[in-house]
Structures are given as C-alpha cells and as structure tokens.
Amino acid sequence: MKKTSILLVLALLLLNISGSTVLAKGTLKLGMEPGGDLSTNISGYMLGYGVDKGFSVAGEYLFDLNDQVELGGGFEYQFNRRVKGLDTGFSFIPLYGTLKIKAPLSEGFNSYFTGKIGYNYLTLSESVQNWDYGGGFFYGLGAGLVLNERYAVEVEYAVNQAELGYILKQPFNYSKIRLAVGYKF
Fold it and tell me: Global pTM?
C-alpha cells in the first residue's frame, strides 16, 4: 500500500507540473498541519484523540470565471500522521473541487478566500491494516495571500471524513488547520 501511495503522489505531481505549462493556472502547495483532532463514534460513545503534526503536498488547477472568481479542482496527499497516545497512524488523499474568490477591497494586497469540497480516501498505518475502512466527504475553508505573482501563503481549516471498523463501520473524522506555501505555474 505504501508503494502504491508513493507512486500515486509522484504521478499526480508529474501531471500537475506537465499540465500546468499548458493551462498556466496550476499551483503546487507544501503544507504543514501543527496538529489536529480525530473523533470517532464506537458503540454510541464519542471518542476524541489528538493528532501529531503532519505534512502534505497538494496540486490545484484553477480557471478564471471573471476577474474576481476562479474555479477548478485539486488533490492533496497527506503523509502518515500518528494519533497521540496510540501506536497507530493514518493519512487521507482528498480529491476536490475548489472555488477561489478575490477578497473585496484587496487590489494592492492580492488576498483571497477559498472553499473546497470533495471526496477523500483513507489509508491506515501497518499496525491497523486488518480494519475495514472506506473514504468519505471532504471540505475546507481558507484564506491566502499571493506574493510576487508566483508564490502564495495560505491557511485553511479542513475536515476529512471516513468510515472505520471491524464489522460495522463507524464514522472517522479528522479536522485540522493547514498552513501552506504554494508556487504558481
């Protein structure tokens, strides 16, 4: 599974880099999540855990709808992160649609708001591979700033949802704040 994940990330990065020269609206982002919260519902009891910091890489394509709005899609690969207090880890691979709106009254400042919605695939570390799991809904809201027409700095709140369990699948929700630096092609 680890080889498949690495190959998927490399293929998506190659697609992003090669396709962006034609579309001229691609962005490659490196992100860091200082921590997050994991929650699940087992037998009617809501359990919550802290999650150690994690890193991610993302690629997006955006098309101009007008001077203020861009629309497109993207993907993110989250590197494995560990659950605090447990000997287990997980990651998500979301595929999403995104909407980017230039912030009002930001002519000289070049700031924007962004929204994302899509589906994500859950991957688990080796220590919990026998569990049955599936992907789920993904959404995020953020704000950013474009610097020198090529670089972007962004902060985003996102929620990854999935299902996890032995026989009956239970909700598995991971919420985080992501800080990212991007390069626009």
Answer: 0.80
